[in-house]
Design goal:
alpha+beta
């Protein structure tokens, strides 16, 4: 429309015709790329929503688990992932050491839909409150098996598309013991997250891209393993640099 309006100011008919042609071409490009952009829900690592997150996570938080609800430790974590279009279906199997027998809370990013929580092979009712899942737990022994089935979806905050993954450790894209809500604003290290379980044995199996960049180690073609404080998985237009015995991962457009 702008080209058309400006084009009417030209004295020569040839100039007006040229602006009309450019307008039609520009409109054609927009019509062509808009379905792709909408289908992929903003592929870039978009930080324009950070202001919304800062309002959501400004203390005092709307919900923080009771101390008793964090009276457990995750000893082992097995994640099985099945890739779908711009999504992952995940089953997280956890072996826990539980001290109290009433209810516990796990931290998981609030955008992810939880389909089921299973305690010792029995489905239980659960409650979502922000970045937390709370559910009853009972066991005659000190160890308990807990399974959480959920969906990781592509979003403007954390990309998950064909060829692009952005799942940082600070996201809690899998269930974690943590007392505070997840807040990625200014948190680029887990050392700044209070009262969070530090180390866990993690194994990830299933649909894992061959070129994934992660802090876990490969075990065969379809598995990753490691004992870590958090798992980062990234794929896309990125590059790994070596600097003073450290690996630095950046976008390829950045210079080192």
């Amino acid at each position: 429309l702008l080209f058309l309006l400006v084009g009417q100011w030209h004295l020569r008919a040839s100039k007006r015709i040229l602006t009309v042609v450019f307008s039609i071409l520009g409109l054609g490009v927009l019509v062509f790329v808009s379905p792709f952009a909408l289908a992929n829900n903003q592929l870039s690592f978009d930080r324009s929503f950070d202001s919304d997150l800062s309002k959501h996570y400004k203390p005092p938080y709307t919900f923080v688990p009771e101390k008793d609800a964090l009276d457990y430790m995750i000893q082992k974590m097995n994640l099985n992932m099945v890739q779908e279009t711009n999504a992952l279906k995940v089953e997280a199997d956890m072996l826990m050491k539980v001290s109290q027998k009433q209810s516990i809370s796990l931290s998981l990013w609030h955008e992810y839909d939880v389909n089921a929580v299973i305690v010792n092979n029995r489905k239980v009712k659960f409650k979502r409150q922000g970045d937390f899942i709370s559910f009853p737990i009972s066991s005659d022994s000190s160890t308990t098996n807990v399974t959480v089935r959920y969906d990781i979806k592509n979003s403007p905050y954390f990309a998950l598309t064909k060829g692009t993954w952005y799942l940082p450790a600070t996201l809690n894209w899998y269930p974690v013991r943590q007392s505070q809500p997840i807040n990625r604003l200014g948190v680029e290290t887990l050392d700044l997250v209070g009262d969070r379980q530090r180390m866990t044995d993690v194994k990830i199996s299933g649909d894992i891209p061959k070129d994934i960049i992660t802090n876990l180690k490969r075990q065969g073609k379809r598995s990753l393993v490691g004992r870590v404080a958090g798992v980062t998985m990234m794929q896309g237009n990125i590059k790994v640099y070596e600097y003073e015995e450290h690996e630095i991962v950046t976008d390829v457009s950045w210079s080192m």
